[in-house]
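pls ignore typos typing on phone
tryptophan + seq
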Amino acid sequence: MAEPVQTPQASFPTRIFSGIQPSGGLTLGNYLGALKRFVEKQDEGIETIYCMVDMHAITVWQDPEKLRQQTREGAAAFIAAGIDPARSILFNQSQVSAHVELGWIFNCIARMGWMSRMTQFKDKAGKNSENVSLGLFAYPSLMAADILAYKATHVPVGEDQKQHLELTRDIAIKFNNDYGVNFFPVVEPVIEGAATRVMSLRDGTKKMSKSDPSDQSRINLTDDADTIAKKIRKAKTDPEPLPDTLDGLKDRPEARNLVNIYAALAGHTPEQVIRDYAGAQFGSFKPALADLAVAKLEPITLEMNRLMQDPGEIDHILGQGAARADAIARPIVDQVYDIIGMIRSRRD
Ligand code: AMP
Ligand code: TRP
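k done
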């Protein structure tokens, strides 16, 4: 976003918010679809607020000790990938109560029909929808609150979050209409780059996910160089060589995925990768991809491991980030209380 960004309502200054759930270890999908792009936004000099969304994680039961560990590990991944806690605000959601307060208010704005259309809920709940938590159903309205508690205008995410951001827009518009105000911005999803949807290494039609039962399906940010190389060598492909145009990858989801991953890691377009590797067999493309992945990911993994040696320091960074986040969100949520008619007379 080198160019001034088009905000739908010019009165809202550009501010970026995004979040990642500490519900497991982070994957290459999180790195390419989210983290790497969060760093780019920070380095463009935009105000950036990034959050480990622990309140979202507990929509599915989490072991408390693991949740703490995963939250710290996620924060370490942010920093290792290039987030500078002095330039960006980095914190965990539960330390800033504005999120859940606004989340409740948005539960009263969002309509049952809107929520019932969320495909991620349908996928996650599956046949078990009577038995999942109410929080899992309501979670996209908490996500809207995460963003709008800061009046953020732009939200970098992977492709899978697009529908949740449309809901965020609907909630902002309905709130503004219901109360006759121009209070919340209508956010812009920022879904950019070659890897907005990194697919499983075992099945090119399924998203790479930290919750996939097969560890072979994903690259974890904690995998060592050998493991990364092995997983890429074993990734499912087809017997054909790489074609000379992107069109030739149309019905080859696994091959397309590896080309996209290469492009995103190298900072090239998929077209460039195809130009460089036209006619190459996977026997030569996979080792090149493995080398590139190790070169890009190994320094991050090593830095994460180093940071994890000092959990106290990570907690300190999250605490400081939370105080800065609260300073922005508190007055916004207080104004919301005034707008909706809550008496605020407590003094202590
Ligand atoms: P989550 O792990 O579900 O909290 O996702 C955190 C961020 O990573 C969101 O912006 C997601 O869209 C993004 N993300 C997760 N998995 C992938 C994937 N396989 N490809 C691209 N982006 C992803
Ligand atoms: N729902 C997102 C995911 O599962 C995580 C998330 C929560 C988020 N709150 C957010 C992303 C606010 C962007 C902005 O990936």
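The chain is about 50% helix and 5% strand. The longest strand covers residues 15-20. more later
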